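Annex B. Sample input.
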Amino acid sequence: MKTALRNIFLPVFFMISSWSYAQVVDAPTLHCVSVDSTNDVVLDWSVPNVSCGGGFHAYYIFRATSINGPYSLIDSILIQGQTSYTDNVGNGGSVTYYYYMQSNFICPGFTFAYSDTLDNLSPVTPPINFVTVNNGLAEINWQPSVSTEASGYIIYNIYNQGNHPIDTIYGRFNTDYIDVNSTPGIDSEGYTIAVVDSCYNTGRVNEQSQHTIYLSDSVIRCEQKIILKWYFYHNWQKGIQKYDIEMSKNGAPYVILQSVPANVLTYPVSGFNDRDSVCFKIVAKENITGFTSESNVLCRIVNVVQPVKDFYVRNVTVIAPNKILVSFSMDSISDVSKLMIQRGTDTIAFTQLANISPPYNFSTINQYTDTTAFTDVNSYYYRLIAIDSCGASDTSTRGKSILLKGYAFTDLSFFVKWDASWFDSADVMQYDVYRKDDAGFNFQNSVLPDVFSYEEKNLPVDTPCYYVEAVDTMKLPNGIVDTIHSRSNIVCLNQPSEIYMPNAFAPLGQNNSFKPILNLQGLKSYSFSIYNRWGEQLFFSENSYEGWDGTYKGVYVQQGAYAYVVDVIDGNGKHVNAKGTVLVIR
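Annex B, continued. Sample output.
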């Protein structure tokens, strides 16, 4: 150990003139002082490089039993190249001695420096600053030894309740070591050190070993939570100020989630999406000094049960007779193990319709086709139930199909009506009416959202077919705005095939022809006959445009009642006939 002030008596030949302190003769470099097997003290040094031009006189060795002296000259070394000396004290193992050296060369005008002061004690092992994890490897850092004879440090790994040397590094001020064979991501790694001097004297092993912080976790899938657990950091001289829990999510920089006191060794973290990539580390901080120790970095792809969110019926539309297409969506990361679709005829009472295999891709709008619906009889409400792998369920919004009905009248007019389109989180903007002609369905008209009927007459087709399409604006709670088109069933309207007959006519008046009024969808065959009361046929025609003028063989019949028979097959193959009497007025 070096001292700045020595209380010693120097022989006369050490005195030099006080007029020059600019030029100095170096002392031998005292490397180590050690005790040999006979309890004598051995000094080792290296000789100085002196270039003052004068000759060598001696190396002087001084000794004391206190660091502060007084020091006594115990010997002079007269051989310039000598580098060791044995002080035959015989009790070097039990008494502490302090030594320094000085050179004496014939160098007028020069001063003579002192060497460092060393003792015969083993070199002092310094305290450890911290043990940490650095880029996946264990690192130990310590303070330089206060022993000037220290020339290096022995690094020990602690396992099986013992200290096992793994490496030696040289240089008193080399105070950091990374163990390239460490695995701090598997378990905590423990380290300590001992100091060694150039004479291979080894100081005591530091008993305040320190260990890396080992961080582990457990995932609670059904609570969407990760529980972090870590080892207590032992043997900081000033104690632990806190632990910082740091997280990096999906490659973002680390942020401190929370700081916890020294007695807290667990921390729950939540708020994950399934398949998030997260990394955690614990950073311990020592009181006062500010030294820190980082744990291993724990990274994982989160595998938690993500509750079903944003679960919406997106459309309900009739796509064919007795087929309704139900479209639905949910959050793309939803965890679904079972999916059920339910149907009802009102918004309250739903019955199970089917179990559906969860879609492969939740990021798109998925669909289900109900093939058991009576689309010409009822409108239907639909909703879905999703059950996650933890048994929790969630219910979607609801949506309804449109039922269209229609009527054809004998005045060749056509009337259709429908019930309202209805979805949670949607408003009807309009209803568009489509009618089929020879070119297919074509748009006819739009009506306001509070109008539920439409009428036409004098059409160029005999059997018009209609459907109605509701145009809804859907504003979902997750911010999505969508325009949906929901179609009704198709209704085709046939005018009824009927025969209308006047009950009287005047052959000599204005209404002087008697014939059927036909309301038919086409005509395949036609016959019209008139009979008198005795069953004699007075008139017969197969021309639907020809009527009876009230004559028989060119002579007007007498006033009275006459029987008629009309027999028709319409364009659809339907057989229609009419029988009755007509009153002939004269």
